[in-house]
Records
---
Amino acid sequence: MAGILGVYAFDKIWNISKFLYYGIIGLQHRGYSRSGISTLSDKGFFTISGDSAPEDLELPEIQGWAGVAYTGLEKKYPYTTDYGVLSIDGVVKTDLNELSKKLYKDPETALMEADGVFSLVFLSKDGRMIGYRDELGVKPLEIGGFGFDLAILSSETPGISVIGGELKREIKPGELVYIDSYSVSYKRLKESSSSRYCSIDIVYQSRIDSYVFDGNIYDIRVRIGEQLAEERKIEGDVVIGVPDTAIPYAIGYSRKSGIPFSLGFTRTGSPIRTMLASDDFLKVIGVQLKLNPIKSAVKGKRVILIDDSMVTGRTLKNTIFNLRVLGAKEVHVLIGSPKLIAKCPYGMQVPEEKELIAANLPDNEITKVMGADSIYWLSLEGLYKVVGHRNLCVGCMTNLFPKW
């Protein structure tokens, strides 16, 4: 998974380097092992990148009126060639150098022939920017603007809004957006009878202030919490959500059930996505780095703990243990997604099946291993109901993927 960003000024007097820098920080929740920024000026491309989150990049005094940025797990992006610079969220089977060459010479043919599940932003050496989202629509891509001065392509709305931009609309599955110094134009290259939006993007990956796949993530997650309350009624004293992703779930469950909501945790340091952690130690200790329980919120209480997903179970087990240490009387766990049972082939960081706890143990064993009083996952039908349609990629939950 990755966050990709493109910023294009319609007048070369602009320097957009800071827009790229702060915009990609707004997307670093999509992956932070690797990041980079590439700008285009009359002197050509200037690229900085490193094995760090965007906020830790050292940004020299670089110039450029257009540029591309990346945050994620892949070391190769932003990918610079003799023809331009490229950032991709997803998986492309086409050789990147060849793809860059074709995008420069004939973008429509290049994208018609490209094999993969992806969204991309490409900036050519002669100053043309291209955004594209493949026909399945698994990966998001949006376009916004900064007045009449800048066009902005971003994986999610925070990449646009944090730099003062305004969302215009989502790029449709199979649609190309073409930006040059005179205009912004769109063309649907491929039609899809049924798009497949990434369910993990909805329940976990996207920021809660995002508008993705034609829906407000915060509102969807509140409704998931309400759906959990319909599916699983628990007698408890307090509902808490694991920050930040699961807080809307907890709010929704509390509203529907009438059980009081409490913050439950306080954050420690910078946000850490344990699913994206690069080593096992960080996966285990990441929950302490991310948050600490508030003793008065849980001591002597029957706690309903809601999390967005359960992958290996290690971080959630640690959280349950900490709640017990602080005096929680009972801990009932609700998961705001169906069970994860299969690795994602499209670049989302869902591990191998052998590491997925729900793929290897029955519910009663998982409950015992986790140290919980009960555990329940959102049903697949419940997810469809909340989203309002079935146009989702749920391969990691069913082992049935829409492509390959």
---
Amino acid sequence: MSKFLVHAKSGFMARMSALLCCVLLGSVLTACSMKEGEAEPIGQPSSANVAEGSAAADENSAKSSGERTITDELGHEITIPAEPKNIFAPNLEDSLLRLGVKPVAQWSNGKRGHDYLQEELKGVPKLDFSEGQPSPEALLSYNPDLIILHTQTYAQNGNYEIYSKIAPTYVFTNASGNIENSLTTIGELLGKTDEANKALQAYRQKVKEAQEKLKEAVGEKKVAIIRFAHKGVSLMGGQYLCGYVVHRDLGLGISDLVGNENSASISMEILPELDADYIFVINAYGQGTERMKEMMESPIWKSMTAVKQGHVYEVSNEYWLGSGLIAYEKIVDDTVRLLTQ
């Protein structure tokens, strides 16, 4: 082979090597520019498409897992597990138990929880609300997967934001009145709709039978519920707790002094205006003893028609201030027993 051919071949190989180096260098530069945010090659999946696909996959995964997105009574949209297991619902323990569910922790005032539920809540730790709502750290230790707040006041002052970071949080405007509505909702949240329906059906039957007995014994006469507490004395209206049971469910007459209000303050001066033939008295958590003694020993109290006729009954603060079907059933029983004897 001539020297010319050898040199020509060598030159050709050198040019090919240089061209290959340029191609490789161009590929590296293209990859680098893509990392810096330049357009991706046509025909390749874009990062936006990948993100959309990931979001769609997450949505499909949520649907397949049975998660549900619902809106609470304050307008918060939340996603909850198909069947939540670790429930924290302060002051709704009664409703949970009626559905066969134990909460991870229970409401308490100091060391005292809802006395009438303690047998069923045996072993359930207490969280103290006496000085405000418990710290996020305290609640986190129970690992809740659903939080239910029985009133919107529990969600105020930034508390909702704190709770919702711990677990999906459903808020009632006020679950302490119409238990039929709140229990139905809780049943839906927990996947316990059948249990809720059965419990409500039994309660409605109980109320119907009680109404028939009370109509014959009481008729159109009025009933007052007076609550003695450390902050004062109040006449309970028909919007919540025992007042809802007595005046709304059982349909017993209510004093004009409270009318459609949640409650009305009672003092010695306006006591003679109390238009009631029967009076239920509640010593709230044993903190109204002094006020109760002072009022009931007064000549004004003793001059009232209901008092003269022996129609004053002290009832248990344990469940007359309770919120749930267990408490409501006990209130119905007490009302029938005391007013038909």
---
Amino acid sequence: MVRPRPQIDTIAMYSPGKPVEELKREKGLSRIIKMASNENPFGFSPLAEEAMQNEMKEITLYPEVTSPLLAEKLANKLQISKDQVLFGNGSDEVIRLLTRTFINEGDEVVMAGVTFPRYKTNVIIEGGVPVEIDMQNGTHDLAAMAEAIGEKTKMVFVCNPNNPTGTIVEKEALREFISQVPSHVMLVMDEAYYEYADAPQYLETLPLLPQYKNMVILRTFSKVYGLAGLRIGYGLMDPELVGHLHKVKEPFNVNRLAHAAASASLDDDDFLYESIRLNREGREYLNARFSDMDLTYFPTQTNFIMVDVGVAAEDVYEYLLNEGIIIRPGHLMGYPTMIRVTIGQREDNERFIDCLQAFIKDYSRQS
């Protein structure tokens, strides 16, 4: 039997939220509420739908390798150079390109102890060594992360807002941390949930790019723009870094429909702002209901909330599955009594709360 490289034996397949179709088959349910994968429950821009329909006539042709028109459009919107933009098959691919391009065997990569798991996986695949730093109240411990940077450190990941906790690091603390990362160490700022962050203490990192040529900013069209199924994300960085990644990435990694939809989405600020507004309303509703139920939760700046239900997360997960509601149990992420729930439409949020209250009531009665 052909054996894989030793690193492959130390990692597991990525575990996504349970698919809607699978739960329908298993439970015989006709209506499923998916609140597990941080997708946009409000859909996507109608301009994107129109653009994809128009693009269908070109589907027999390969897309352009570097997405030049989309890069120029996004760069103009962000007021940077198009040479600073690189698109990926989701920002996940950009993460993989970064580790594949820059991580040698034995290089250390500093990251939070509970964060997006694909950082660690991709580092291990390349033979690197993940250095995981314990969280403080669901937030990156930047001081400890700075201390962990040593001679072998090649890269640092900061997910801000953080997945799965939804928390952010305070503006001045992050600014100081960025200044402490040595120029030969790559700092990857994963901002997949950037558009949802509205707290005054959230740091805008994009203006810092010219000063810190070792910094990479990751963003995506999967979340607030609602294009998760098309798989298109991007990295913002120094043009020299973009050049290195272009040598490594697959030539036609972003398909034509994704290009068209992303480009059209950039024209629809009304959809963008409405999604942000509705998400904020849902966040406030769920936070208030959790407080009414005396449940603690991490302060979120995203489209999901991690809440401590005080009992085994697996039990809540299974109960909600039987009610046709999919969430993410926290025991898989280092929080055995917490669940992560995506903020949904109003009626979905209300249904989730009703079911959660029923579970807690039943559990208390049986205890």
